[in-house]
Amino acid sequence: MPSYIVTCKEDASPEQVEEVKKHTKEQGGKIGHEYSIIKGFSVTFDDDAVTTLENHPHVKNVEADGVMRTQ
């Protein structure tokens, strides 16, 4: 399964972030790392289920996880 980074909206409360994680699990996602700098987490997901997560009202962004490089 592909891995994604899910970022919640900046104004999302802790309860709303938990709601997004619950929704993620209900859609078959497996949460990996939870980030403290941003309101977000990594998740492995079937491709088809990502669309429902992208449309969640407390989600700002869902992007494919990958290697980040600096110059």
Describe this structure in a few short sentences.
Belongs to the protease inhibitor I9 family. The protein has 71 residues and is α+β, with helices and mostly antiparallel strands.
Describe this structure in words.
The termini are far apart. This protein has helices at 14-26, 47-54, and strands at residues 3-8, 30-35, 40-44, 59-64. It is α+β, with helices and mostly antiparallel strands. It contains two helices and four strands, in the order E-H-E-E-H-E. The model has no long low-confidence stretch (mean pLDDT 89). Helices cover 30% and strands 32% of the residues. The longest helix is centred in the first third of the chain and has 13 residues, at 14-26. InterPro entries: PBI_I9 (IPR052471), S8pro/Inhibitor_I9 (IPR010259), S8pro/Inhibitor_I9_sf (IPR037045). This is Peptidase inhibitor i9 protein. Residues 3-70 form the Inhibitor I9 domain.
SSE map:
Elements: E1 3-8, H1 14-26, E2 30-35, E3 40-44, H2 47-54, E4 59-64
Antiparallel strand pairs: 1-3, 1-4, 2-3
Record keyword descriptors for this entry:
71 residues; alpha+beta; Alpha-Beta Plaits; 2 helices; S8pro/Inhibitor_I9; Peptidase inhibitor i9 protein; PBI_I9; endopeptidase inhibitor activity; S8pro/Inhibitor_I9_sf
